[in-house]
Amino acid sequence: MTDKKKVLYADDDLDDKTWIIEACHAAGHPLEISFVDNGKQALDYLEATTDGALPSLVVLDLNMPGLDGRQTLQKLKADPRFAHIPVAIVTTSTSRMDMEVCKRLGADLFVTKPDTITEWQVVVNQLMHLVQPQTSLNS
Predict the structure, then answer these.
(1) SS3 76
(2) Would you say residue 136 has pLDDT above 60?
(3) Could you give the CA distance from residue 130 to residue 112 in angstroms, rounded to a whole number?
(4) CB of 76 within 8 A of CB of 88?
(5) Half-sphere exposure (Cβ direction) of 79: Cα atoms closer than 13 Å
(6) Which end of the chain is more exposed for a tag (fewer CB within 10 A), N or C?
(7) What is the DSSP string of the chain?
(8) CB 107 within 8 A of CB 12
């Protein structure tokens, strides 16, 4: 029996999506990652969840077209159906203000995107600490 945890990852950068997949494999973590390109798509994905299983973690980039990471985080935490899902911000930003705003909005983790596969594995390990057992919409 596999124990894959569902993760929703919102990022418009194809390279970063590739890095996270490679890092998960290299680190040996069984994550089932669904990718979307922006915050609106992330919210649409959650709204359209028909099988009752919400992701165990939402990962957001801050700088996405349309609905950015901050706006998406705020909407997630304001919605009682999704507020309990841990949210990690993985971004190119190194701004202390961005970090403080995201923490205030309810982010569980704020990490600057790394440059190497080894550093991405460290990020994956941090994300694994946030992954909760899958939850049902009916819970």
Answers:
(1) helix
(2) no
(3) 16
(4) no
(5) 13
(6) N
(7) ---PEEEEEE-S-HHHHHHHHHHHHHHT--EEEEEESSHHHHHHHHHT--SSEE-SEEEE-S--SSS-HHHHHHHHHHSTTTTTS-EEEEES---HHHHHHHHHHT-SEEEE--SSHHHHHHHHHHHHHH----EETT-
(8) no
Mean pLDDT of the chain: 87
Other Cβ atoms closer than 10 A to 138:
5
Residue type, 40: K
Q: What is the pTM of this model?
A: 0.88
| Parallel, antiparallel or unpaired: strands 53-54 and 135-136 | antiparallel
Q: Note the pLDDT of residue 29.
A: 77
Over the stretch 63-80, which tens digit does the pLDDT of each residue have? Answer: 999 899 999 999 999 999
Which position has the token pair 């057992």?
A: 133
For the chain, the first-to-last Cα distance in angstroms comes to 23
3-state helix, strand, coil in the chain (%, to 5): 40, 20, 40
pLDDT at position 2 is: 47
Task: State pLDDT tens for residues 1-22.
Answer: 346 788 999 999 888 888 888 8
